[in-house]
Specification:
Strand order of the largest sheet: 4-11-12-14-13-9
Number of helices: 3
Distance between the termini: 30 Å
Order of helices and strands: EEEEEEEEHEEEEHEHE
Oligomer: single chain
Number of strands: 14
Largest sheet: 6 strands, mixed
Radius of gyration: 20 Å
Helix content: 10-25%
Shape: globular
Structural class: alpha/beta
Length: about 220
């Protein structure tokens, strides 16, 4: 956010954060408030189940909170999430739940550094509006919602976050996957991010081929 403005006729708004005609040096994140560690990553479906792969998570942007300090703005972004039902012992689905996750621009940018992008495939690009379905291969589970700092609820190799077509869901899944798993010694799980030139099925196949445990953000 720091750009040279010498020589500009009016340098006041060139590369300088400003809001309501007030300029500051920089933008800082407000409280991110991930909430208490989730007990487990909630699984919606496991290998052998046939599921749609487009975004099903009802995640939207809430109104941001903006404040000021002497030399900077404080910005807190909000994701509003209505979770899909998760598998629970003795029943097929649990009741859905609502949650709010506060974050900031710096946390979003930092989460990008955890992701590895899929390689392009030979298939036509997937349209998120298409109802693409797939029978999950062995070792693959689809998540319902997001778990910050949780542990694994099922012993899978690839945990799929269905976010295609929803930028808010994509960011929410990414910042959740970038959190350390406190239930497993604070370890970080590597993240695979599907590129637009890779179809859903190839993204899953590529991630399974990596070996180990991964989170795939579709």
């Amino acid at each position: 956010m720091f750009l040279a403005t010498f020589g500009d006729p009016d340098p006041s708004f060139t590369g300088v954060p400003h809001r309501n005609a007030v300029c500051k040096h920089r933008i800082l994140d407000g409280p991110t408030l991930p909430g208490p560690p989730s007990p487990a990553w909630p699984a919606h479906a496991v290998w052998g189940d046939r599921v749609p792969l487009s975004a099903t998570e009802a995640t939207t942007y809430g109104s941001p909170f903006c404040g000021e300090r002497a030399d900077c703005f404080i910005v807190s972004l909000r994701f509003l999430h209505h979770e899909a039902p998760a598998l629970t012992p003795g029943t097929r689905y649990a009741a859905p739940a609502e949650s709010t996750r506060r974050t900031g621009c710096n946390e979003l940018y930092s989460a990008l550094g955890f992701g590895e992008r899929t390689a392009p495939c030979a298939h036509p690009p997937c349209d998120p509006r298409d109802k693409v379905e797939m029978t999950l291969p062995t070792g693959c589970a689809v998540l319902a919602g997001y778990a910050d700092q949780g542990t694994r609820s099922v012993d899978a190799s690839v945990y799929v976050c269905r976010t295609a077509g929803s930028k808010a869901a994509w960011w929410r899944a990414l910042i959740a996957a970038a959190q350390p798993m406190l239930g497993e010694g604070g370890a970080f799980v590597p993240i695979m991010v599907r590129g637009e030139s890779c179809c859903f099925e190839c993204a899953i196949t590529q991630t399974l081929g990596k070996g180990g445990v991964w989170v795939l953000v579709l």
